[in-house]
Design a protein that fits this description.
Elements lengths: L2 E10 L2 E10 L10 E6 L11 E3 L1 H9 L3 E2 L1 H10 L17 H25 L1
Parallel strand pairs: 1-5
Antiparallel strand pairs: 1-2, 2-3, 3-4
């Protein structure tokens, strides 16, 4: 049985509220879980202490028996000082895609034509 520390969604439509739970990896997102170990309220400001609440002792226990946190929960644990999150690096993700390159080339060409048109009558 593979155990994960992950988020389970609660709250109403357009008003999310998440529970940090320890669950079997085969369980559905909002389904059965083993233990609730915290909460996350994304509607609160980032500097608010109530935004993320964690039961640190229980999380330490689950990490010691092999539970794997998801990426978002690993960020919370890193901020709390429990684990060190590996930074991801994908340099090609931020590069402009094909349509944007074509659009920028067309804009540059249009700007060059406009500059030439303005320069000709004055000469």
């Amino acid at each position: 049985m593979s155990v994960k520390i992950r988020l389970s969604r609660g709250g109403t439509k357009k008003r999310p509220y998440y529970y940090v739970v320890v669950a079997d990896s085969a369980s559905p997102r909002d389904g059965r879980y083993i233990e609730q170990v915290g909460t996350h309220n994304p509607l609160l400001p980032k500097d608010n202490a109530e935004r993320v609440k964690l039961k640190l002792e229980r999380i330490k226990h689950w990490l010691s028996v092999g539970a794997q946190p998801t990426d978002r929960v690993a960020r919370f644990l890193d901020a709390a000082g429990l684990t060190k999150r590996q930074a991801r690096h994908n340099p090609s993700k931020g590069k402009p895609k094909k349509k944007r390159i074509e659009r920028e080339a067309a804009q540059a060409e249009a700007a060059a034509k406009k500059a030439d048109a303005e320069a000709k009558p004055t000469a």
